[in-house]
Write a structure and sequence with these properties.
single chain, mainly alpha, 11 helices, 67% helix, globular, HD/PDEase_dom, HDIG domain-containing protein
Length: 189
């Protein structure tokens, strides 16, 4: 994927989020900034990760809400309106263990059949790391603090609260895997 994809993704996300959801836009920019850090791990897929990172929450845009489940709504918009790359669409649809939230919402079968999880574990893990180590304001954080913040914002008994608590062991394990891979990268200088 080229820098053209990342540039297009940035423009699309900005159009949908910047004015209506500025905090979500700040988060998306922070997630995309984290993606840049993973370029050495991803090689040719680094541009795809940057694009998915800035677009991962596009489904929150008020004009795109159809099911109320932002990964699915965003992925459908990217696929149906923009004809976006299938790998990008599937990354957005399944970011940060979305299948577990889809299950809470009665949409798991729909998501699995329509937009199955991408069979590229490092790329999927990379997007989880970017999202789950970025605050709503776009700052870096730990996965533990991020999960606590999400539960606090939505409430423990909410759909999102239940989902994130179920997903937290997988989130923490994923973040550890990515951080181990980053630590194993050769340092220059």
């Amino acid at each position: 994927m080229t820098s053209q994809l990342a540039e297009w993704a940035w423009k699309a996300a900005k159009t949908e989020l910047a004015s209506t959801l500025p905090r979500r836009w700040a988060h998306s920019l922070g997630v995309a900034a984290r993606a840049v850090e993973l370029a050495p791990l991803l090689g040719d897929s680094a541009g795809l990760l940057r694009a998915a990172a800035v677009l991962h929450d596009i489904g929150y845009s008020p004009g795109l809400v159809a099911t109320g489940f932002h990964p699915l709504d965003g992925a459908r918009f990217l696929r149906d309106v923009h004809g976006a790359d299938e790998r990008l669409v599937r990354l957005v649809a399944n970011h940060s263990f979305a299948l577990l939230e889809a299950e809470e919402r009665g949409l798991r079968e729909t998501l699995e059949e329509e937009l199955p999880l991408l069979d590229e574990p490092l790329l999927v893990d990379a997007l989880v790391w970017c999202d789950m180590t970025t605050t709503p304001d776009g700052e870096q954080t730990t996965a533990e603090r991020r999960v606590t913040e999400i539960v606090g914002r939505y409430g423990a008994g909410s759909v999102v609260g239940r989902f994130i608590r179920r997903a937290s062991p997988e989130i923490f394990a994923t973040v550890e895997r990515v951080e181990a891979a980053l630590a194993a990268q050769p340092r220059w200088g």
